[in-house]
Write a structure and sequence with these properties.
8-stranded mixed sheet, 8-stranded antiparallel sheet, Jelly Rolls, hydrolase activity, hydrolyzing O-glycosyl compounds, glycosidase, 32% strand, glycosyltransferase activity, mainly beta
């Protein structure tokens, strides 16, 4: 991907947003890829969620490797309805702001390393007024040594990398890999979801709710601002276009900066095989069929990096082969709903990830974000 410049998005139109049924890794064609139904409204962006769908997800086409990322937004509301503003890497490092629709005065902050669930990582932050009725500014300031969550310019939580060292794994359980910015609205309260997820989300979702307008729930984004910091001092390589993961440990020093391309030949291609399926037009149009040829997906609805269970009592959620193997080193693809698809059947192409097996020597090719 081309060099990422610090940039503000005012969302006055849908220009720069490309459906993930079309996006193949060329960041010169779009700033964001989407699933579901984003909509314009009064110079802002609506993420919509109607009955029979699982909402809307936007993911930045460039990756941030440390930076200050802010979103000016109004959340949705209602039992079972979750709005999210997160950073998510291909190795399932994650930094979250999540908003449960039954508590409009609380923002949930969270972080994960390599998608490993830790229930002690979450912390509730107080919002000064109704998060649906009023715009608020939410900001994640992520540096190699420290991470802060702020609301309306006030730092409400600080995490120091030095406090996250895990003696068992002999590594810091701190988000440290290049990540995409994701904005999402999703129905955590679907009856088909695990009981723990439904309870966390405030109960089952209602499709006859006063919080719905024009037959859909919505979250409203006025703007997103991304200020990218310099790559860390231990970054390898001297390129200016892409990051590569060179070791499955996925520590900060295991990423190399290169000039390699990131445009995929089809939805079957990965960072390890950029041209797979390029000549097969039917394969490029769909990832259905042979399970071994299914593209990986990015979750935007679980509020956790591993896509498995991050709320007490859950036993399943959206799981993909890449998510399972990245966190555990074993496992196979499982089923679950995909952000932006039908709740009954996935009728929309899942968000494509530019990655292959994380256990290869050279793995994910992602976009470089620098000043």
């Amino acid at each position: 991907m081309p060099v990422c410049q610090s940039k503000s998005y005012d969302f006055s139109s849908l220009e720069g947003i490309q459906a993930n049924t079309e996006y193949l890794g060329d960041a010169t064609e779009a700033d964001w890829s989407s699933s579901g139904e984003p909509a314009e409204y009064q110079d802002s962006l609506l993420l919509t969620m109607s009955q029979g769908t699982v909402g809307t997800l936007l993911a930045s086409t460039h990756y941030v490797w440390y930076g200050k990322i802010g979103a000016r937004m109004k959340t949705s509301a209602g039992a079972g309805v979750v709005t999210a503003f997160i950073l998510l890497s291909d190795t399932k490092d994650e930094i979250d702001f999540e908003f449960v629709g039954t508590d409009l005065l609380t923002a949930q902050s969270n972080f994960y390393s390599l998608g490993i669930t830790n229930y002690d990582n979450g912390e509730n932050l107080t919002i000064s007024s109704d998060s649906m009725a009023n715009y608020h500014d939410y900001e994640i300031d992520w540096s190699p040594d420290q991470l802060t969550w702020s609301i309306d310019g006030k730092v409400l939580r600080t995490l120091k990398k030095s406090d996250t060292f895990n003696e068992t794994s002999n590594r810091y359980s701190y988000p440290q890999s290049p990540a995409r910015v994701q904005l999402s609205l999703w129905p955590a309260g679907l009856p088909s979801n695990p009981e723990g997820t439904i309870n966390w989300a405030g109960g089952e979702i209602s499709w006859d709710s006063p919080y719905m307008t024009n037959n859909y729930y919505y979250a409203q984004f006025d703007s997103v601002d991304i200020k990218c910091y310099d790559a860390p001092s231990d970054a390898k390589g001297n390129g200016k276009k892409t990051y590569k993961l060179t070791d499955k440990a996925a520590n900060e020093g295991d990423f190399e900066i290169t000039d390699d391309p990131t445009v995929l030949g089809s939805f079957l291609a990965t960072g390890l095989n950029m041209d797979e399926g390029k000549q097969d037009e039917s394969a490029s149009a769909s990832v259905s069929g042979d399970a071994s040829k299914t593209a990986n997906t990015v979750p935007g609805m679980t509020g956790a990096g591993n896509g498995v269970d991050n709320h007490a009592g859950d036993t399943s959620a959206t799981v993909t082969q890449s998510q399972q193997t990245q966190a555990a080193g074993t496992g196979s693809a499982a089923t679950g709903f995909v952000q932006g698809g039908s709740s009954g059947a996935s009728n929309i192409q899942p968000e494509t990830v530019l990655s292959g097996s994380l256990f290869a020597v050279v793995v994910a090719i992602v976009g470089l974000c620098i000043l």
